[in-house]
Amino acid sequence: MATLKVPAQIPSPEDDSEQLRKAFQGWGTDEGLIVKILSHRNSAQRELIRAAYASAHGEDLLTSLDKELSSDFERIVMLWTLGPAERDALLAHEATKKKVTSPNNFILMEIACTRSPLELFKTKQAYQARYKRSIEEDVAYHTSGDFRRLLVPLVSTFRYVGDDVNTALAKTEAKILHEKIADKAYGDEELIRILTTRSKTQLNATLNHYNNEYGNSITKDLKTDPDNEYLKLLRSMIKCFIFPEKYFEKVLRLAINKMGTDEWALTRVVTTRAEVDLQRIADEYQRRNSVPLDIAVSKDTSGDYKDMLLALLGREE
């Protein structure tokens, strides 16, 4: 369930674009007005505002925002103003601009595993349109070894989205997964094939059979070396498929609770999930930490950045 709150009646895109233009004029930027407008418009409405702004002022709204804003507030407003596919394309590109490290591997996996097949396809289209390359070739170029063998097919596939399950196949592939993990063949092509190509419904059946037949969840069996970054990625990938709210809760918990807030991770989760399932993530956060997510965010952030976060979380200061 989304946390985004859009009023029943809103101004026209033309009126919103003019109000945003006014926010940029004068002696100082009116950040409060920017939050008031953009944090209460869905992706389709924000797209219309951008079109109206460009038509009226000959400049992309993103360009104006970039000129007027700074720091964490600029990043959250810029990411939020982008459409979902453009935003994911940007996040993926940032993750592949340099030698891919652990956090960037997780961002690529997150995009591939928590978006629908059609959403991922649109992201790849946006990526090619903007960067004149494919996500697949950039991921392949900036990764190596087991990470490349896993991530390239993961961002390449278009999974079946139906509810059909082949029970016999689930049993067979659960056995394959168990054998490969028992042999510590974590980069085996069969293990990767199953995890990167099967539908989420089929994969869920396979993992349920794995748990019932072999007495452990697959994620527990993948904890033989807790510090192994590749195994961490595999475990997180499976969590994204089965319990995405638990995956995102952990990302937020680590972003907020460690020494010094990880604003980039916090911003990424809030902007990408506010129109999708941020309420479920917030519920999981409160269950896990006994603190409401908006209260935790409020204590850990400040200023216009905090106001934008709280608005997207469905709470106003």
UniProtKB/TrEMBL annotation:
Biological processes annotated in GO: response to cold; response to heat; response to salt stress; response to water deprivation
Keywords carried by this UniProt record: Annexin, Calcium, Calcium/phospholipid-binding, Metal-binding, Repeat
Organism domain of life: Eukaryota
Gene Ontology CC annotation, any one: cytoplasm
Keyword Calcium: yes
Binding-site positions, Ca(2+): 24, 26, 28, 68, 256, 258, 260, 300-301
Coiled-coil boundaries: none
Cited SMART domains: ANX
GO MF annotations, alphabetized: calcium ion binding; calcium-dependent phospholipid binding; phosphatidylserine binding
Record text about domains: A pair of annexin repeats may form one binding site for calcium and phospholipid.
Annotated family: Belongs to the annexin family.
Name the record gives this protein: Annexin
